[in-house]
Amino acid sequence: xxxxxxxxxxxxxxxxxxxxxxxxxxxxxxxxxxxxxxxxxxxxxxxxxxxxxxxxxxxxxxxxxxxxxxxxxxxxxxxxxxxxxxxxxxxxxxxxxxxxxxxxxxxxxxxxxxxxxxxxxxxxxxxxxxxxxxxxxxxxxxxxxxxxxxxxxxxxxxxxxxxxxxxxxxxxxxxxxxxxxxxxxxxxxxxxxxxxxxxxxxxxxxxxxxxxxxxxxxxxxxxxxxxxxxxxxxxxxxxxxxxxxxxxxxxxxxxxxxxxxxxxxxxxxxxxxxxxxxxxxxxxxxxxxxxxxxxxxxxxx
Length: 301
What we know:
Helices cover 48% and strands 16% of the residues. By secondary structure, it is α+β, with helices and mostly antiparallel strands. It has two domains: 9-181, Jelly Rolls (Sandwich); 182-301, Arc Repressor Mutant, subunit A (Orthogonal Bundle). The protein is elongated.
């Protein structure tokens, strides 16, 4: 009997290089074992990925949807999507991979290209078959990307940023859509992230207290999680986490006879004194003051 799979592996961009890059472009064969050992194994990326399969046929399962990928096909993966490549023959092509911080390099006020409908849409459908004529332009862009990465001349990161944006524009034209997602697509995606965030708080607020912890689980940056939270609820992600912890502390203080020290440990605080300071900072009352005041207003039987 095959060993039961207990988790879904998360692959990080540094797994493909010896440094910690924010952008790479490579032939599939040059990726070596890092790529080919993942064939047949469901996994996630914590970065954006574009595959161009130039030759060979494969089956690509993305979030339970199966796609047949043939010669000269592009497909796009967003961080966190579970995918599994299966191939019975040799495949050749390219992989472009980048972190969201790379796309924000020159767009400090927006992440428009990341919101591309090539990566985010209602049903994953960003698989594009290229004609021989269309392939010429994509080949030229990839060649320039490789040249910039190899030479790393002044402002090469700016050049790479522009080349990637151009690559996305070319693909979007073929797909027949704008490179930018519609407001409805962006809103739906953000709402989904926020709902997952709220559910994660319910599951993990005892153990996880930092926005970065939740952002990591959602495969996004903390600043983006805060932005989405503020947009949809009016308060930051950090406030949501703190409010949930404080609510549970107030429940214990009001409905049980536990001491502040005992409550601190139940809520995952290693230092009871820190818990008391934390509670007072955000409620303007110490735990004992809150207990007295709440029971005076609503005495327990």
